[in-house]
Amino acid sequence: MKQLSDVELVLLQIIAESKQTSGYEINKLIEQRGYREWAKIGTTSIYAGLQKLKEKRLIQSDSPTDKFGKGPLPVKFAITEKGIQLLRIEIIDCLSSTRERDSRFDLGIAALPLIHKNEAMEALKKRDEFLRETLLHIRGKYEAQGGEKLPLHVWALFLHPMSLIETELQFISQLISKLEGGATL
């Protein structure tokens, strides 16, 4: 049973991994690891998510007392024991019961007979182009951060979407071939 939103799950995982971190550091790590590519995590949702996690008593915040430089002191967040317990439950649930799927794409496939074959092929070619650009972008981030030398969980975080995109590109190629080969809608 899902008790955390995707944003809350990502934030809790990063805080647990970092032991103690600020919103700024979380935002930076989300960008580096490419979470925004698939989890729809904006800067505003980070701070709203942190607030929700505090309200649920899954994290606690601490403002450092020794100040260096200008600007406000960064608030540091740490996971609570309750947060650790819920995070473990959520991770096990994610790994055992969720699946990667773009339901809007599936709905489009189901509705193929309602458009002309040329429109379908043009749309699929655009999706192919979009996926190839996305794959290059993710692969670039993966390589820039160390590729095969990354810690296992970060390596997997990059390889999983790249593998899914590669498989979808194969599927789209097959579908376009069938349409070009005279398959009827």
From TrEMBL:
Gene Ontology molecular function, alphabetical: DNA binding
Record keyword Zinc present: no
Transcription regulator PadR N-terminal domain residues: 11-87
Domain of life: Bacteria
RNA-binding in keyword set: no
Gene3D superfamilies hit by this protein: Winged helix-like DNA-binding domain superfamily/Winged helix DNA-binding domain
Family matches, as InterPro entries: Tscrpt_reg_PadR_N, WH-like_DNA-bd_sf, WH_DNA-bd_sf
Alphabetical keyword list: DNA-binding
Name the UniProt record assigns to this protein: DNA-binding PadR family transcriptional regulator
